[in-house]
Automatic annotation (TrEMBL):
Disordered as annotated region, ranges: 247-284
Family under the similarity heading: Belongs to the FAX family.
Domain Metaxin glutathione S-transferase residue range list: 141-203
PANTHER family cross-referenced by the UniProt entry: FAILED AXON CONNECTIONS HOMOLOG, METAXIN RELATED
A cellular component annotation (GO) from this entry: cytoplasm
The encoding gene: FAXC
SUPFAM superfamilies to which the protein is assigned, alphabetical: GST C-terminal domain-like (SSF47616), Thioredoxin-like (SSF52833)
InterPro entries to which the protein is assigned, alphabetical: FAX/IsoI-like, Glutathione-S-Trfase_C_sf, Glutathione_S-Trfase, Metaxin_GST, Mito_Protein_Transport_Metaxin, Thioredoxin-like_fold, Thioredoxin-like_sf
Protein name: Failed axon connections homolog
Residues annotated as domain Thioredoxin-like fold: 1-88
Residue ranges with Basic and acidic residues bias: 275-284
Length: 284
C-alpha cells in the first residue's frame, strides 16, 4: 500500500500502532476521518476522491491481465510467502521483529509463535495449508516463474510505465528479496529469476530512495572502491512521506558510490530510462 502511495505521489503519514481496521483488516487508511480497509478498496477510494490513476495508460485487455496478476499474487503467492516467513523461517523472522524492553526476547518469541499459529490456521482454512510443505513450495515456484515470464525484459510488469500491479508484485517479492535470507524464494529470485531481483531493485531505488541496509548485497561496488569512499543517505523518518519532498528538499538524496551516477546506477537498474536524468539536469 505504501509503495502504491509513493508511485501515485500521494503524501501520507504512517503512524501504524498495530491496530486493525473495524473489519479486522490490514492495510487500512484514514482520509478526512473516513476509514477504508483492504488494498483494492483503498485504491478505488483514492482514485475516486483524488483522481489518481496509475492504470490510465492501460487498455481494457491490459487492465484485465493486470487484475488477474494481482489476484494470483494476493490470493496465492501471498500464502506461500507467509508460510516461509512465519513457519519455516520463524527463527530469522524473530530476529527482525522490533520489540524493546527488559523482556523483549520473550515477547518476540511469544509474538512470533502466536503469529505462526494464526498463519497455519488461516492457511488451512484457505486450503493451501492442507498441502505438504514441498507441494506449497512447488506452487510458490510456479507463481514466481509466472511473474518472471510475464515481466521478461520489460521495465515494469505491464510495460515501460509503472501501474498498480507493480505495487502489488513489488510488495510481495520484496519479502523474498530482503526478509527471507537463505530460503528457497530468496535463492530463486536472486538466482535463476534474476529479472525479478532487478525489477525489485529498480522499484526500490525509484520509490524508496531512503531505504538502505548495511548488509545490502544488491549494491555493486567496483574493486577499487574502498569502504571510506562509499557514502549513503541517512535513513529518513518514515512517519511522513512525500516523494516530491524526498527528492527536492535536500537536493540529491540518493546514495552515490564512485562507480554509480546520481540515480545509484548499478547492475540491477541498468535500464533506468533517461527521463530521470533529464529531470535531474533540469533541477540543476
Amino acid at each position: 500500500m505504501e509503495t502504491y502511495l509513493r508511485m501515485a505521489d500521494l503524501p501520507y503519514q504512517n503512524y501504524f500502532d498495530g491496530k486493525l481496521s473495524p473489519q479486522g483488516k490490514m492495510p487500512w487508511i484514514e482520509y478526512n476521518h473516513k476509514q477504508v480497509s483492504g488494498t483494492e478498496f483503498i485504491i478505488d477510494f483514492l482514485e475516486e476522491k483524488l483522481g489518481v490513476n496509475l492504470n490510465k495508460h492501460l487498455g481494457p485487455h491490459e487492465r484485465a491481465v493486470s487484475r488477474a496478476i494481482t489476484k494470483m499474487v494476493e490470493e496465492h503467492l501471498y500464502w506461500t510467502l507467509a508460510y516461509c516467513q512465519w513457519v519455516e523461517n520463524l527463527h530469522e523472522t524473530q530476529k527482525m521483529v522490533s520489540l524493546f524492553g527488559p523482556f523483549s526476547d520473550l515477547l518476540k518469541w511469544i509474538f512470533c509463535h502466536l503469529t505462526k499459529g494464526i498463519v497455519k490456521r488461516e492457511m488451512y482454512g484457505h486450503g493451501i495449508g492442507r498441502f505438504s510443505e514441498e507441494e506449497m513450495y512447488t506452487l510458490m515456484e510456479k507463481d514466481m516463474r509466472t511473474l518472471a515470464g510475464l515481466l521478461g525484459d520489460k521495465k515494469y510488469i505491464m510495460g515501460p510505465h509503472v501501474s498498480t500491479v507493480d505495487a502489488t508484485v513489488f510488495g510481495h517479492l520484496a519479502q523474498a528479496m530482503w526478509t527471507l535470507p537463505g530460503t528457497r524464494p530468496e535463492r530463486l529470485i536472486k538466482g535463476e529469476l534474476i529479472n525479478l531481483a532487478m525489477y525489485c531493485e529498480r522499484i526500490r531505488r525509484k520509490f524508496w530512495p531512503e531505504w538502505h541496509h548495511d548488509d545490502d548485497n544488491t549494491l555493486y561496488e567496483s574493486e577499487e572502491s574502498s569502504e571510506a569512499s562509499k557514502t549513503y543517505s541517512p535513513l529518513r523518518d518514515l512517519s511522513f512521506y512525500s516523494r516530491t519532498e524526498t527528492f527536492d528538499e535536500e537536493g540529491n538524496s540518493i546514495s552515490q558510490t564512485p562507480d554509480t551516477d546520481y540515480t545509484g546506477h548499478s547492475l540491477f537498474d541498468s535500464d533506468v530510462d533517461m527521463d530521470e536524468y533529464r529531470d535531474h539536469e533540469q533541477c540543476k
